């Protein structure tokens, strides 16, 4: 009933934002569906999933015809019974063709209300079946009995409010045929939090290799703000700042928590406007709380996933995503990034292949605010979409710049994927953008250890299979006050290194991290969500070959060792003495 009321509300009150499919078809099919049997609903569901290959259910066509017949009689303009029947039949078929055309043209999201009606309206709603959600997931979503997808869905539906269960399943049904796994679609229900979480579970392979391949392609698909909504935000600016913006040109899209738009300034320059979605922080907190309940339900059900790593990802995600909600913080990170990349232009002279770095600056005269930021516009194409020759000409510089700032400066952006790099072949400029996740690492004098050195030695231990090196430095990376099961860690760590000795470093990092987490030694965020995640993204983007990536990493590790030579020598001699040589 609530959804039928929504249909009427969309038509009578909220017509400017109305979903055309919902407005045009919702009222007509709502009544018949509410009275339909479970079997009839299943037939209509199959039709909605494949409107081109299936016929509209006869019950719906008949109900529409009877409705039209009654309306003609009520109008009283046509008296001949045969003519009335003919008009009603023609009207019903016109509706049928219109509905079929609308369904074929509709986006997946536009079908959600109809799926929701089949699931929840009336006493025969499919969610009232004792087998729900398995009656839907196995037959229509293609989830195997006992599969990861099925377990995750059942756990998720157990923690969401009852009124959201049918909407969740309706969304999953709308994604059938969209080349998405069930896990991938389920993460999208959590919106920004889910997208980022799905990306993290892909990097850490929480649900295995196959699911990781699917979730690796997750993108934040939150709808951008409209021009009208952005204009409302701009009205709140002081007159002096608002007066410098001549016009809002176009909405470019959305990225994570913000909408990106192009504006023209009064002096003729173009700039990029970043606007945070209203209530973004409240929505994120709500979805993070839901994620925590979801995790507890997985634990309760003893679902066979690495719950410790899952828990660590959720905890890191909470602090990282909430940290991105304030654009004033991002403004400071942009200023730091500009300084680092200007230094790189000098330090990497001769290895830039004729290119230079340029981080878009904040537009002078506009005060950064928690919900709005104005940047100079950078030209170019994202590295991810650039032609192969352009990627080849710039990939090594991107990798080296990231590793240099990490190991030489103690500053690292772990979100350096191909969509966060613009390349302009005309001016031979590489524009790194979006530094909301940038982390800093301690940097001490040459005789003293620091975050950079600890992290480098940890990676060295994993690469060489040196359990002692991994043990010592991994414990230094753990959160302060962590209650680590040292005996359990030794056993798990030895097993992890042995099981992955012939596997890629990526898999060894995951296994070792899981050993620490399961032993109570969760790493501090700058090491897990920062350094380790960032290195795996940097490698996974294939800016360079695996061999070249390893070469650049060794180059920067060697540079760090040279800068810490007394400390490195002391570590070496301790190792020699411990081995008895």
Structural class: alpha+beta
Helical content stands at 55-70%
Separation of the first and last Cα atoms: 80 Å
Beta-strand content bin: 5-15%
Strand order of the largest sheet: 1-2-3-5
Overall radius of gyration: 29 Å
Taken from the alpha-carbon principal axes, the silhouette is globular
Beta-strand segment tally:
10
Q: Sheet with the most strands?
A: 4 strands, antiparallel
Question: Number of helical runs?
Answer: 25
Low-confidence stretches: 1-18
> What's the rounded overall pLDDT mean?
84
Helix-strand layout with pairing:
Layout (H helix, E strand, L loop, with lengths): L1 H11 L7 H16 L2 H12 L8 H18 L5 H25 L2 H13 L13 H4 L10 H12 L2 H13 L7 H8 L1 H13 L5 H7 L11 H9 L3 H4 L2 E11 L2 E8 L4 E7 L3 H22 L5 H17 L3 H21 L8 E2 L14 E5 L4 E2 L5 H22 L1 E2 L8 E4 L4 E4 L6 E2 L10 H14 L2 H11 L8 H14 L5 H14 L6 H16 L5 H18 L1 H15 L2
Parallel strand pairs: 4-9
Antiparallel strand pairs: 1-2, 2-3, 3-5, 6-8, 7-10, 8-9
């Amino acid at each position: 009933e609530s959804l039928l009321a929504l249909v009427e509300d969309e038509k009578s009150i909220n017509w400017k934002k109305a979903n055309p499919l919902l407005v045009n078809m919702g009222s007509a099919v709502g009544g018949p569906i509410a009275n339909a049997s479970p079997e009839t609903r299943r037939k209509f569901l199959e039709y909605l999933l494949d409107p081109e290959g299936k016929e509209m259910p006869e019950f719906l066509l008949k109900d529409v015809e009877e409705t039209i017949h009654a309306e003609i009689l009520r109008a009283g303009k046509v008296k001949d019974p045969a003519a009335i029947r003919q008009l009603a039949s023609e009207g019903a078929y016109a509706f049928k063709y219109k509905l079929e055309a609308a369904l074929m043209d509709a986006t997946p999201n536009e079908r959600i209300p109809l799926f929701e009606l089949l699931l929840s309206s009336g006493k025969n709603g499919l969610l009232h079946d004792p087998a729900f959600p398995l009656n839907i997931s196995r037959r229509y979503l293609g989830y195997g009995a006992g599969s990861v997808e099925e377990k995750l869905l059942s756990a998720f539906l157990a923690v969401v409010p009852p009124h959201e269960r049918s909407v969740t399943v309706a969304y999953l049904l709308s994604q059938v045929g969209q080349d998405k796994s069930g896990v991938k679609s389920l993460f999208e229900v959590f919106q920004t939090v889910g997208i980022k979480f799905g990306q993290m579970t892909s990097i850490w392979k929480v649900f295995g290799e196959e699911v990781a391949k699917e979730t690796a392609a997750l993108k934040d698909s939150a709808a951008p703000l409209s021009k009208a909504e952005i204009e409302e935000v701009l009205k709140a600016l002081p007159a002096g700042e608002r007066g410098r913006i001549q016009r809002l040109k176009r909405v470019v899209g959305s990225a994570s928590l913000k909408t990106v738009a192009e504006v023209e300034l009064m002096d003729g320059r173009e700039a990029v406007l970043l606007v945070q979605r209203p209530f973004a922080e409240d929505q994120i907190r709500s979805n993070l709380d839901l994620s925590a309940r979801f995790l507890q339900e997985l634990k309760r059900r003893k679902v066979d996933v690495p719950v410790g790593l899952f828990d660590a990802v959720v905890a890191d995600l909470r602090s990282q995503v909430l940290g991105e909600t304030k654009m004033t913080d991002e403004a400071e990170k942009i200023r730091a990034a500009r300084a680092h990349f200007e230094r790189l232009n000098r330090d990497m002279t001769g290895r830039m292949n004729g290119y230079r770095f340029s981080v878009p600056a904040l537009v002078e005269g506009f005060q950064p605010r928690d919900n709005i930021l104005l940047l100079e516009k950078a030209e170019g194409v994202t590295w991810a979409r650039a032609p192969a020759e352009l990627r080849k000409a710039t990939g090594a510089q991107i990798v080296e710049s990231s590793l240099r700032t990490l190991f030489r400066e103690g500053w690292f952006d772990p979100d350096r994927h191909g969509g966060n790099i613009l390349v302009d072949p005309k001016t031979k400029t590489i524009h790194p953008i979006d530094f909301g996740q940038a982390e800093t690492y301690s940097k001490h004098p040459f005789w003293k250890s620091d975050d950079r050195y600890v992290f480098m030695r940890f990676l060295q231990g994993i690469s060489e299979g040196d359990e002692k090196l991994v043990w010592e430095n991994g414990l230094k990376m753990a959160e302060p006050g962590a209650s680590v099961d040292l005996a359990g860690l030794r056993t798990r760590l030895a097993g992890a290194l042995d099981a992955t000795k012939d596997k890629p470093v990526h898999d060894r990092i995951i296994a070792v991290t899981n050993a620490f987490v399961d032993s109570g030694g969760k790493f501090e965020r700058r090491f897990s969500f920062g350094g380790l995640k960032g290195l795996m993204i940097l490698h996974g983007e294939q800016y360079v070959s695996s061999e070249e990536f390893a070469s650049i990493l060794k180059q920067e590790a060697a540079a760090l060792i040279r800068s810490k030579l007394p400390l490195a020598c002391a570590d070496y001699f301790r190792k020699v003495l411990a081995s008895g040589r």
